[in-house]
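Archive entry: two folds, one per protein. Generate the first.
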Amino acid sequence: MRRAPLPLHLTTGSFSLRAADKAGVTRSRTAAQDLVTVSRGIRVPSGSAAAGSAALRAYTDLDDEATLSLGSAARLWRAPLPGWLEEDWRIHLARRRGRSTPRRVNVVGHQLALLPDEVVELDGVRLTSPARTWLDLASVLSTDDLVVVGDSLVCEHGPEFPVPRESLCSIEELRCKLERHRGSRGLRKARTAVGLIRVGADSPPETRLRLLLVRAGLPEPVLNHVVRGDDPCGGPACPVLWPDAAYPQWRIALQYEGAHHNGEDQYLRDIRRADTAARSGWLEVRLSRLDLAGGHPAAVAKVRNALVSRGWRSS
């Protein structure tokens, strides 16, 4: 006997029996072998490659009081997580304090003191807001990992950048969370981390590089700096360089080069960028993951030497 096709919106990821009922799908159809029961009342089409919000939407659709939180919310906000948490694919669900703790297969339940504006919806999934997610992560992350997440959430680039970017929240919103939840776990750690968060870091290595340089006694580099100079697009005010970090006073540009810089096209773009920096009177310091490794990272010596060559002297 041929199975009745499912409504299209139920085929793109997980769905709850509640959603199936609303769509007029019979219970015998939801018990068919082409559907996988991943948890009580939740089905996923067999062989589905759904990820992100599509894979998780049934968990909040099934329970009006459940909200994705901590690592599960952070993934949907595309916040960079440390490896141990990135590999933990259990689903973190929370209910407001005073309610029962969510309990089901592959779910970690939480009770949180959630304020009305701290629960939002993204692609049909209910989850904690970016700033609230960051605060909750303070209970499980190290200070540096919390700074990495914070940098990611507040990162923005203006219209002068090749790829403009809007932030998910502001540093002020993060500070506000600390004041509104003075009894939360990890509060002391979060207070330290928020003082280290800056706007403009595109990746965890860029954040870790900045922290490394400051702790080594070097000046803190500037983020979101635009270098202007003569360019075919016309005028001396034309933007020509967008360094990952910069020391404008000494005309030094720091560029972190990840794995994607190994491609031939990117390699050629990097050469053109270095030539542009030289023509504009800037010294480019190129850094990789190897420069950040070990007990005495090479990045510190590279940047210190560049600063000294441009006239910087340690106090």
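Generate the second and append.
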Amino acid sequence: MTMRTRGSGRFALALLLTAVPLLIALLGPLLAGEPGPRGASFTLGDGHWAGTDFVGRDVWRQVLLGGRTVVLTALSATALAYAVALPLGLAAALTHRGWLEELLMRPLDVLLAIPSLLLILLAAAVFSPGTAGLALLVALVNIPDAARIIRATAAEAAARPAVEALRMQGETWWRMAVGYVGRSALRTLAADAGTRLTGVLYLVATAAFLGVGVAPDAADWAVMVDRNRTGLFVQPWAVVLPAVLIVALTMGGNLLFDAALARTRSSARKETRT
């Protein structure tokens, strides 16, 4: 088996692992239909091919309804984290003023010292965050780490003579930061984005599992795992289906980024040879 065949197989597997839970999450509410009559708790059959949950609701319908919140919250939190971390990291890497770099990065170090889940739970103890609040909290705890990675990656590119030449030519900060430094750091940032999205998905699911940001009986994959675990050995599908979808989405997203980076490296090698 050639390297190209293995790469194509890995990309196809990653795409499948990502696409199935993503399509269920985004299109599921459109396909769920009206709720039918409830049955007995944790039973199979009687028109419920995946069984019923802890209050007798159809598990498959809950699965169709329960992914959109997890996925959209994770994507929003990741995008918000990078929207703040990217300018902070680039500014810290490009500045020649030590005091400005300290001003930008030291407050983030303080925030980085607090465990992510602990900070979310402390905030949830003060106010009820809701879905939007949970996305903001998850983004907040990811900003320090993302900003440090962006700064470390961009600092190497910012020290090259090309950046000094651009500065001497009077190029704008935007051209230097985004046009050259950001482009040089793109591969590292893409790899970090894949890993970070995986961590954010797990963090959102864990917070929802603990009841942060969602109602206790909400149609949510993480809540389903929590609320139905008492019947795991009686009716396992109520726990297994949402858990497998969460794991498939996180694994698939990470593999997809890795496969895309591998293809980019392969294309770059071909261009270098030619």
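Annotation attached to the second fold: The radius of gyration is 22 Å. The chain has a mean pLDDT of 80.
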